[in-house]
Automatic annotation (TrEMBL):
GO terms for molecular function: hydrolase activity. Gene3D superfamilies: Ribonuclease Z/Hydroxyacylglutathione hydrolase-like (3.60.15.10). InterPro entries: Metallo-B-lactamas, RibonucZ/Hydroxyglut_hydro, UPF0173_UPF0282_UlaG_hydrolase. Residues 23-216 form the Metallo-beta-lactamase domain. It comes from the Bacteria. This is MBL fold metallo-hydrolase. The lineage of its organism: Bacteria, Pseudomonadati, Bacteroidota, Cytophagia, Cytophagales. It comes from Flammeovirga agarivorans. Keywords: Hydrolase.
Amino acid sequence: MNSVDIQLIRNATLKLNYGGKTLLVDPMLGEKNSMMSFVVPDQNLNPTVDLPFTKEEVIEGTDAMLLTHAHPDHIDPTAIELLNKDLPVFSQDTEEQMLKDAGFTQVTPITTSATFDGIEIERTGGKHGPEEVLDALGQVSGFVLRKSDYPTIYIIGDCLLDDEITENIKRINPDIIITNSGGAIFMGQARILMDESETVKVAQLAPNAKVIATHIESLDHCQVTRTSLTAAAAEASVEVIIPADGEVISF
């Protein structure tokens, strides 16, 4: 099987070398404290950390972008300004018009699946929180990447672990699972991302997969830390890979 490189940039921003292509996922490229707080009104406190290297280095060599949804911690004004507008972009259909209005000329909305240079990209669903906040937070997506002789990657996206995600894991049988595990709290009340216990459960559901946890220690409404998740995984005797910003994981 051919190798893949998965680099965590920051938060949910990933750079994947997969199937001979470089894919940029959910680019949030603004400087530290360039975006509104999700906790304190009228203050710019996000992201809480800087990029591990320059934004120009982040996007260098990108062949296509995958966007799970258009919340500002997944695509921000800096990314929209900086990215080549002729870059192929794959997103859910609810983001199509926004991306075109931003100037992107090669937007492919995915309802079920699409193909990019031999890479199959399947869109998966999920819930970005409990029922009472779904109208406010809107639709989100995950993506499955497949190519012959390459590991299958399931990017779950901003989703809680529920029956839909559990069934996806069983159906897809991925080699690599990427979770957004920050345990973010919406409006001080509802949890809208996986936390330590749900991330551990993902690893238990897929004991043969490599689980990579992201969306941690970058935003002020995220409660999970790398330390707390490491401890939870150790207590449950499961392996969860928790990369540092800028770290490359190769399989």
